[in-house]
Structures are given as structure tokens and as C-alpha cells.
UniProtKB/TrEMBL annotation:
Entry keywords, A to Z: Iron, Metal-binding, Oxidoreductase, Transcription, Transcription regulation
One Pfam family in the UniProt entry: Cupin_8
Reactions accelerated catalytically: N(6),N(6)-dimethyl-L-lysyl(36)-[histone H3] + 2 2-oxoglutarate + 2 O2 = L-lysyl(36)-[histone H3] + 2 formaldehyde + 2 succinate + 2 CO2
Protein name (Swiss-Prot/TrEMBL): [histone H3]-dimethyl-L-lysine(36) demethylase
Ranges for domain JmjC: 172-347
A GO term, aspect molecular function: histone H3K36me/H3K36me2 demethylase activity
Length: 463
């Protein structure tokens, strides 16, 4: 199982200093809560999110698919009242295929299992505490505010293999987009799933999480692992997100902030300057997606809503009321380039393995294999495929140039890690495989309006 958030690099809260000015109760308030609330008051949604609310006509899977492809999954999509099981808010014109039962905490506990282990985050330190199971968590969740010792949050409990998980059907659009899910799908033509099975490659468990948050919980700014896109749908409660688009300069600031020692003292948005009109004009010239040209914003998420968060958006989350949410993460072809970029950011910000997408690099090789065998790509994802080829070439170059005097112990470890990520038993000879991929890319280049071969040079990505 992959844990979704890291407390790494975070300084401990100085409780002694807090004691001088705060009451014990206030120890449960994360230092950024106030700043979050002020930010929230200051912003409006405008055209920054595609909001589907009270549609006059049916909004179904087909319409959502059109919207996703029109926006290339670059802009957040929020569909209000999408879950028929949340009858208070459900809008019957919304007819999307997914199944998320609206269980309360007792039912969730029963369906997950009382003894099931639960990774619990201490909101103040943002670290996970061991030794919790569902029964203990249920008892804690049902306590009154006065009875609780601390504010705790559960955001990393994957439930695919529980009774609850088996009852949940993820949104059809997510199932269609999730490229790793596709690898494991039964496909008689390619028999891909059997090949993976024989090679001992198992599906990553990241599709179905249950999040259970006590009011006052706060999850500080982060990018979800491998820049995965997210679906997020509350059953109960009230959540608030602050979102920043993955503009290059936002990512640079984010990286520096992650590497600094004082995330608890520094409110990330205070480091991000407001975009000037002249900069917006310049970014437009560089083909920066229109959906990225904003200064960050807050959104409220209610029971029955379905939020589709695009790849690599920087976000923090505040819990207004005790909340239960079903959500999940997925890699998709439209966002392949940003997934690869997010992977480099994780390396640069020294994210621990346990907080990463499981076997990410292996899956990148397998995605390439799938694309070659399935002939499943076109001009629409041209740039993504070029990035894919560049990334894999780089991996291979690093491994094949391994050795020599300048190689440190760290380099050797890295080489063995990169080597073990190559699924040779599936893809066969690596240079031949890369050549095959290059030929395919060249073909799409020929059909594309993009500047062609120049793009194939291996970009230096030592972020
Ligand atoms: O709901 C929360 O507190 C955090 C949600 C989130 O962004 C995540 O789990 O990655
Ligand atoms: Fe997140």
C-alpha cells in the first residue's frame, strides 16, 4: 500500500513555545489553519474550474468524456450532486456510472473490518502514527470534540480488497483514463494481463481510498504521488481545497519550500507572487495551458460532489466538518508528460519510497510497451509520447554508461534501482525496444503539426 502524504522534512511543532501563548485546545490547530481560512474568504471560482451544477439536460458519461477531452484534463472538474446514494444533494439529471455507497462510520467499520489496520495522520506533525485499527479509529471518530486528544486524519487507507472496496465502482471516466488499469484488463488480443501475471507484476493499489477526517484536519500543500490525477467524492462532511496550477514558477517555489525546514512556519501561498498581466501574456505565448493562468483558488466540496483534480496541481485541504470521502489516484496518457515531471520533482525533493506511486518507473516502461503493441496513440498525445521516449532513453543511457571512476556508491545504488525497474521479461532487448518506440514516435511526428524531429533529442532533466 502506498501512503499518500509525507511528514518528511517537516520541523516538529515547538510545543514549549506554543504553551506560552496558546491553550491546550489550540495545540490541535495546525499553524496554517488561519491563513487557509483567510485565503478562502478572498477568492471566487470564476472560470477556473469546470463546474457542473443543476444541469438542465442529462449529464452522462459521454458528456463528461467530451469535457475531459476538450479540456485535456488540464482544468479541475467539479460535478455537484453526482452521487444518487447521497439523496440530499443528488441531481437526477446527472447520470454518471459509479457506485459509492453513503455509509456512516459504523457501516464503514463493518465493511472494512474492525481489525483492519489504519494509517492515521497526526494533523499537527503531518506524520502517520502506528497501532490503529478500524475499531479504534471508529471509537475515536465518534468521540465528542472535548473527548479527543488530538485532531487526526486518515487519507491513506486503500480498500480495494475489503468488502467495502468490492462494493465501490469507480467513475467510468476514471476507469477509461487509468492507463495502468488498462494494462491489467483482460484483453484477449494482447493477453497482456497474463504476461504481467507471469512476470509477477501486480496492480498498484491506489484506485480506492477511504478518507476519514475530523473537523479541523488540515493537509498541507502537496502534489499527489507521480502527479497522479485524482477523483474525490465525499459521502458526508465538508471539505475545502486550495489549488495552485502547476505553472513552472509555482513548481519551482513548491520545490524550494519542500526542501526547506520550515513548512509549518511558511505558508506556501505567501511565497507565490501574483501573476501580472504582462506575465500572463508571455505565458500564453509559450503555449502554457489557459487553465493554468490563475493565482490559485479555493473550492468547497460537499457530500455527493465529484471532483476530478488534474495532474500535478499543488493543493492543501481543510476539513470544515467531520468527513468521509471515497477517492483514488490514476496515471493517464493525457498527463504522461506531467507524471514524468512530477517523478523528477519527487526525486529533487527527496520523497521517501513509501510515499511514491508503487513501481512507477516499471509502469512507465510497461505503458510504452502497451502503446507499441496496442497501436493506441495518435497526434493528440504526441508531446506525451515524446516525453516518454526521452525519459526511457535517459534511464537506459544512465544504466548503460554505468561504471568508471566517477561513479559513487550512490550512483551504483541508483543504477541497480533503475535496472531492476526495467521489465525485461516483458519488453525484451532494451535498445531494440527503444528503437521500436522511436519509429512509432517518428510516425506520429510526421502526422503532427508540431515541429518534428528536433523534439526527439534527449532533454536534460536533472531537476
Ligand atoms: O482530505 C484531505 O485531508 C487530503 C486529501 C488529499 O489531498 C490527499 O489525500 O492527497
Ligand atoms: Fe492530495
Amino acid at each position: 500500500m502506498s501512503v499518500r502524504r509525507s511528514g518528511r522534512n517537516r520541523t516538529r511543532i515547538d510545543y514549549a513555545a506554543l504553551n506560552e501563548t496558546h491553550t491546550i485546545q489550540e495545540h490541535n490547530v495546525h499553524p496554517h489553519t488561519q491563513a487557509f481560512k483567510e485565503f478562502h474568504d478572498a477568492s471566487t471560482l470564476d472560470d477556473k474550474v469546470c463546474v457542473i451544477e443543476n444541469p438542465l439536460e442529462t449529464f452522462d458519461d459521454e458528456k463528461l468524456r467530451d469535457l475531459v477531452y476538450k479540456t485535456r484534463l488540464l482544468k479541475p472538474i467539479l460535478i455537484r450532486g453526482a452521487n444518487p446514494n447521497v439523496s440530499d444533494t443528488y441531481n437526477s439529471n446527472i447520470q454518471l456510472s459509479f457506485e459509492i455507497p453513503a455509509y456512516d462510520m459504523d457501516q464503514v467499520t463493518e465493511k472494512v473490518g474492525e481489525d483492519h489496520k489504519v494509517p492515521v495522520m497526526d494533523v499537527m506533525t503531518q506524520n502517520n502514527s502506528p497501532f490503529w485499527n478500524m475499531a479504534k479509529w471508529r471509537d475515536y471518530y465518534q468521540q465528542s470534540r472535548e473527548e479527543r486528544d488530538k485532531v487526526r486524519n486518515v487519507i491513506s487507507l486503500e480498500i480495494s480488497e475489503t468488502e467495502l472496496g468490492r462494493e465501490i465502482k469507480i467513475p467510468k471516466i476514471v476507469e477509461d483514463l487509468d492507463i495502468v488499469y488498462k494494462l491489467f484488463e483482460d484483453n484477449s488480443k494482447l493477453n497482456f494481463s497474463q504476461l504481467l501475471d507471469e512476470s509477477g507484476i501486480v496492480p498498484p493499489k491506489v484506485q480506492k481510498y477511504i478518507l476519514m477526517s475530523i473537523a479541523g484536519s488540515y493537509t498541507d500543500f502537496h502534489i499527489d504521488f507521480a502527479g497522479t490525477s485524482v477523483y474525490y467524492s465525499p459521502i458526508s462532511g465538508h471539505k475545502q481545497f486550495i489549488l495552485f496550477p502547476p505553472l513552472k514558477r509555482n513548481l519551482e517555489i513548491y520545490k524550494k519550500w519542500c526542501l526547506s525546514d520550515d513548512q509549518n512556519k511558511t505558508w506556501l501561498p505567501s511565497l507565490i507572487p501574483t501573476l501580472k498581466q504582462s506575465e500572463i501574456a508571455r505565458l500564453r505565448q509559450t503555449r502554457t495551458p489557459e487553465a493554468y493562468l490563475n493565482n490559485g483558488f479555493a473550492i468547497d466540496i460537499f457530500p455527493g460532489d465529484l471532483l476530478l483534480l488534474p495532474s500535478m496541481w499543488i493543493h492543501s485541504v481543510y476539513t470544515k466538518e467531520n468527513s468521509i470521502i471515497i477517492g483514488g489516484n490514476y496515471l493517464n496518457l493525457l498527463s504522461l508528460k506531467t507524471h514524468l515531471q512530477a517523478h523528477q520533482i519527487e526525486i529533487a525533493t527527496r520523497v521517501d519510497e513509501q510515499f511514491k506511486f508503487p513501481n512507477f518507473v516499471k509502469f512507465v516502461w510497461l505503458i510504452a510497451y502497451y502503446l507499441i503493441k496496442n497501436n493506441d496513440y495518435d497526434e493528440a498525445i504526441h508531446e506525451e509520447i515524446v516525453s516518454l521516449l526521452n525519459f526511457l532513453k535517459e534511464q537506459w543511457t544512465f544504466v548503460s554508461k554505468a561504471g568508471g571512476k566517477s561513479f559513487t556508491r550512490r550512483d551504483r545504488l541508483l543504477v541497480s534501482k533503475i535496472k531492476s525497474a526495467i521489465p525485461k521479461e516483458v519488453i525484451g532487448d532494451v535498445p531494440a525496444f527503444l528503437e521500436e518506440l522511436k519509429i512509432k514516435v517518428d510516425k506520429t511526428c510526421d502526422n503532427s503539426e508540431e515541429p518534428t524531429r528536433k523534439k526527439l533529442k534527449v532533454e536534460n532533466s536533472n531537476t
